[in-house]
């Protein structure tokens, strides 16, 4: 009988010892818990579906939660801190390592078709944000981190109850879950902070340029507390929720797949361009700058001072691509290939007038 239930969010059955260990997040890995599958209806159902699909039983289970953000929208990719909390909805994967080099993925949701590929030839198509690609992001991130070239295969059955494309980070939860699956199959060890950083980077393979909030809270969350997530270096601080407080999370049922459009990345690129223009104006090495927080740190100024610098430096009218190039002393081709993300390089999507002052001001005010 399968016994292991691996998780990186505090579960209803958690010991005091685990809670104590998880405070040292820079070095501690995800918690491992042993439960009886028969006592958990969802695990039992997943085990039965796994048996029906693959003709065997899973060796272990891995889960990663979704999240809701409380304070700090669209500023993690600017380098600024955020305040999310994990939710009960999660991604749960039943796993069986196999002796072949084939990676077989299936989903309990019939809307998501089965997928198989060689574990040693991972190809991720950025133009098609299909569900297996998010698993492949996590898989590839661990593979590349350890520099491995001869990986074992595995059978995986995914069960998710996070509403897709709803703003609750179902895709990032799948990336994180896949990274933890791969780490476990390989018998390797990483801290939760390292896993969060790897999965943040590897989700870029799908084409989105997120800043790391989603992956960080998925790995670093604890029951009964939100987390102040700070970056460079990544660290998390408990923010206890008020006693008796209730958060109502309502689904508008309007879906937004970040990887399917350029809308998300356009906002990221606008903030990046604002950071580079500010750095150039202040005679900083702007080529190295990617985030607004980096400019503030290099200038050694307060957030209030940074906001004044922004208002004095950037004009309120939208910037054209040509003006950005003149300010930075680069060509339009260099702007496209060296600064913009692939899905914002198209003239109909990315190379339009950018309201950089507004984006920078919003980031500062949220911070």
UniProtKB/TrEMBL annotation:
GO biological process terms, semicolon-separated: galactose metabolic process
What's the protein name?
N-acetylgalactosamine kinase isoform X4
Upper lineage: Eukaryota, Metazoa, Chordata, Craniata, Vertebrata
Give the InterPro entries listed for this entry: Galactokinase, Galactokinase_CS, GalKase_N, GHMP_kinase_N_dom, GHMP_knse_ATP-bd_CS, Mevalonate/galactokinase, Ribosomal_Su5_D2-typ_SF, Ribsml_uS5_D2-typ_fold_subgr
Enumerate the SUPFAM superfamilies for this protein.
Answer: Ribosomal protein S5 domain 2-like
Q: Could you list this entry's UniProt keywords, alphabetically sorted.
A: ATP-binding, Kinase, Nucleotide-binding, Transferase
Pfam families, A to Z: GalKase_gal_bdg, GHMP_kinases_N
Look up and give the organism this protein is from: Delphinapterus leucas
What positions does the domain Galactokinase N-terminal occupy? 49-97
State the family it belongs to: Belongs to the GHMP kinase family. GalK subfamily.
Domain GHMP kinase N-terminal residue range list: 133-220
GO CC aspect terms: cytosol
Q: Where are the transmembrane segments?
A: none
An MF annotation (GO) of this entry: galactokinase activity
Which gene underlies this protein? GALK2
Source organism superkingdom: Eukaryota
Compositional bias, Basic and acidic residues, is annotated for 351-360
Q: Where is this region: Disordered?
A: 344-367
């Amino acid at each position: 009988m399968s016994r292991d239930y691996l998780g990186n969010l505090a579960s209803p059955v958690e010991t005091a010892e685990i809670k104590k260990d998880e405070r040292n997040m820079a070095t501690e890995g995800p918690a491992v818990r042993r439960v009886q599958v028969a006592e958990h209806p969802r695990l039992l159902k997943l085990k039965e579906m796994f048996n029906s699909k693959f003709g065997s039983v899973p060796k272990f289970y891995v889960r990663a939660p979704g999240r809701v953000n409380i304070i700090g929208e669209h500023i993690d990719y600017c380098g600024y801190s955020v305040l999310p909390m994990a939710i009960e909805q999660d991604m749960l994967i039943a796993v069986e390592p196999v002796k072949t080099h084939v990676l077989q993925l299936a989903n309990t949701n019939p809307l998501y078709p089965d997928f198989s590929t060689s574990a040693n030839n991972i190809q991720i198509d950025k133009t098609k944000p299909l569900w297996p690609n998010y698993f492949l992001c996590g898989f590839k991130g661990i593979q590349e981190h350890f520099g491995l070239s001869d990986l074992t295969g595995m059978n995986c059955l995914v069960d998710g109850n996070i509403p897709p494309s709803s703003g609750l980070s179902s895709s990032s939860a799948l990336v994180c879950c896949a990274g933890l699956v791969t780490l476990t199959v390989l018998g390797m060890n990483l801290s939760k902070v390292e896993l969060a950083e790897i999965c943040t980077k590897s989700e870029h393979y799908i084409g989105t340029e997120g800043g790391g909030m989603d992956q960080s809270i998925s790995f670093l969350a604890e029951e009964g507390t939100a987390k102040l997530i700070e970056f460079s270096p990544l660290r998390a601080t408990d923010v206890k929720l008020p006693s008796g407080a209730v958060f109502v999370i309502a689904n508008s049922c309007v879906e937004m797949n970040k990887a399917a459009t350029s809308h998300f990345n356009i906002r990221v690129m606008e903030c990046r361009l604002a950071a580079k223009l500010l750095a150039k104006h202040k005679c900083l090495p702007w080529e190295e700058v990617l985030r607004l927080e980096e400019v503030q740190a290099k200038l050694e100024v307060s957030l209030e001072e940074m906001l004044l610098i922004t208002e004095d430096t950037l004009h309120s009218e939208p910037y054209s691509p040509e003006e950005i190039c003149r300010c930075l002393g680069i060509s339009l081709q260099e702007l496209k290939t060296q600064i913009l993300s692939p899905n914002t390089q198209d003239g109909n999507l990315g190379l339009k007038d950018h309201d950089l002052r507004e984006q920078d001001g919003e980031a500062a005010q949220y911070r």
